[in-house]
Design brief:
The structure holds two protein chains of two kinds. Chain A is an alpha/beta fold. Chain A has nine helices and 13 strands. In chain A, strand 3 and strand 4 form a beta hairpin. Chain B has a two-stranded antiparallel ribbon. Classes of the chains: A alpha/beta, B mainly alpha.
């Protein structure tokens, strides 16, 4: 009996060491250029490249998981994956529930997109669409305009097209390529600076992993490789 | 997939479509039809079995067993599906991990609940975080099956409970007069006759179950509605070789056809089953069959 306990303990220990190296990264997979599913159905985008590079530098094996935006924080804290890397802006509200690494993009301006020909819109007195639980949704609610929320970024754009909303407020790097390629949509001149940049979200109890990723991000900032990625995917200002 | 698909920009018409419809992402969509069908194929019999156990327990003469059966039926039927799917699955998952944690890491000194976080040792993770992705998917699918079976089992239990009571009392009395024990009368007389009374309720449940599969995505299982939404959304040329405007309507139209065909096939099958089960029964349909056979 004693032997049995010893062997199981040894097994559990050795298993513990071997396992410490796999980190599961949770993302939404519906927010290009940050993260999206490519034609093969795999996670792709700025954060895919960034995450793979960070894991390589930290010598971790990483595994990508997609999760609905609405339940992305609850699933992190209950341990279904170990980090969120999903274009999530660092805010005080989120800081209360999870921890963030340092930001890996500059605070990105958010832009309004309207139907072409409606550029004279007064956004303070309009119906604005935004994705649920985003900094933009909170911003619109504070601004006093009428807010309509949608579960996915896609639906916010459809709402503008269908006339349900007058404009959509979202990260400029998300809206710009859409406005460029669709003649019926255009961006307003007005930008809003909200949020503290995008960082990786981690469990508050997982201080060690947060420090590991923090150091990896710092090393990418130092040697300029992060700036290259930012330019390649066009996700705002460089550092 | 096809050799001519390497440069989709140069294609048009049907060739473009044939390439577009065979991308890896579309394959995932087709695969998810299998996921949904598999879920139904496993869940329906499991829920029926659970319902049978629940109903038998509820009508038991042993009081605690009967309370347990009635409690199960009342609680699960009373809680909204979505709340059940969000709460129960996380609770089940954490419960399993908690037990494994107690078994595998008895020396662990840190608390499991740390603020908002649920932390167990890495050997207690279910499945292990080193496990390949497909294992995680199978585990998620398993949780989905269990949850669906428990929810629909409660409804089925209520239906079967009613059906057991609908079997004419005279049938049981006759069985007892022949000297059958309570158990024999239950299995030989009551159970074979109750299905005809249960079928309308069970067929309703089946229809609801077919349409409830989009709840799967709440559990992290990517079902057909998820992929239709993902594939149908507008795609810009920078991020895909197959840019297109918002095509969600067409994808949802395809789903509509799928669901309609599926429910129609089920209706036909259930109708035939009703006819079969009516044979020799003391019901109006059974009587009609008998008359048709004699004239």
């Amino acid at each position: 009996m004693k032997n049995l306990i010893l062997t199981t303990a040894a097994l559990a220990l050795s298993a513990g060491f071997a396992m410490a190296d796999t980190v599961r990264l949770g993302t939404e997979g519906a927010y290009p250029p940050f993260n999206f599913l490519n034609d093969d159905g795999e996670v792709d985008g700025f954060e895919r490249e960034l995450g793979d590079e960070l894991c390589a530098r930290a010598e971790l094996t990483c595994e990508w998981v997609t999760n609905d935006w609405d339940s992305i924080i609850p699933n992190l804290v209950s341990g279904n994956y170990d980090a969120i890397i999903a274009g999530m802006s660092i805010t005080d509200e989120r800081e209360e529930v999870i921890d963030f690494t340092q930001n890996y993009t500059q605070p990105d301006p958010s832009a309004y997109m309207v139907l072409a020909g409606n550029e004279g819109l007064d956004v303070t007195d309009a119906v604005i669409a935004a994705q649920t639980n985003t900094i933009q949704a909170a911003f619109v609610a504070d601004m006093g305009a009428q807010l309509v929320e949608f579960a996915t970024p896609d639906e916010t754009i459809s709402a503008v097209r269908s006339g349900e909303a007058d404009a959509v407020l979202a990260d400029k790097s998300y809206l710009a390529p859409i406005a460029e390629e669709n003649a019926d949509l255009s961006l307003l001149d007005r930008d809003e600076l909200i949020g503290g940049g995008i960082g990786m979200g981690l469990r508050e109890s997982d201080e060690e992993l947060r420090e590991t990723f923090d150091a990896a991000i710092q090393s990418m900032k130092d040697d300029g490789s992060l700036n290259e990625l930012i330019e390649k995917w066009d996700v705002g200002e460089t550092f | 997939m096809f050799s001519y698909c390497t440069d989709p920009d140069t294609l048009s018409g049907l060739t473009w479509l044939s390439c577009y419809l065979t991308t890896g992402k579309h394959m995932a969509l087709y695969g998810s039809f299998g996921t949904v069908l598999l879920l139904l194929a496993i869940t329906a019999p499991t829920a029926l079995a659970l319902g049978f156990v629940g109903a038998s327990a509820a009508r038991s003469h042993i009081a605690p067993l009967s309370w347990l059966g009635k409690f199960y039926i009342a609680i699960v039927r009373g809680v909204p599906d979505i709340a059940f799917f969000l709460f129960f699955v996380i609770a089940l998952d954490q419960g399993i991990e908690y037990l494994r944690h107690k078994l595998r890491c008895p020396d662990w000194s840190e608390p499991i609940r740390q603020g908002n976080d649920f932390v167990v040792c890495s050997a207690a993770k279910m499945p292990l975080s080193t496990a390949p992705q497909w294992l995680h998917e199978i585990y998620g699918f398993g949780l989905a099956v269990v949850t669906f079976a428990i929810v629909f089992g409660a409804f089925a239990a209520n239906v079967l409970f009613g059906a057991m009571r609908a079997v004419p009392r005279a049938q049981i009395e006759t069985a007892e007069a022949y000297g059958m024990s309570r158990r024999q009368a239950f299995w030989r007389v009551l159970v074979p006759q109750m299905w005809i009374y249960a079928l309308p309720g069970l067929s309703n449940l089946w229809m609801v179950l077919i349409k409830a599969t989009p709840l799967l995505f709440l559990l992290g299982v990517e079902d057909i509605v998820y992929w239709a939404r993902e594939l149908g959304g507008a795609k810009t040329a920078r991020f895909t070789s197959y840019p297109h405007p918002d095509w969600r309507m067409w994808y949802f139209l395809a789903l509509l056809v799928f669901y309609l065909v599926f429910t129609r096939v089920s209706e036909v099958a259930l109708e035939r089953l009703t006819r079969r089960l009516s044979r020799g029964q003391a019901t109006a349909a059974g009587e009609a069959l008998r008359k048709a056979a004699t004239t």
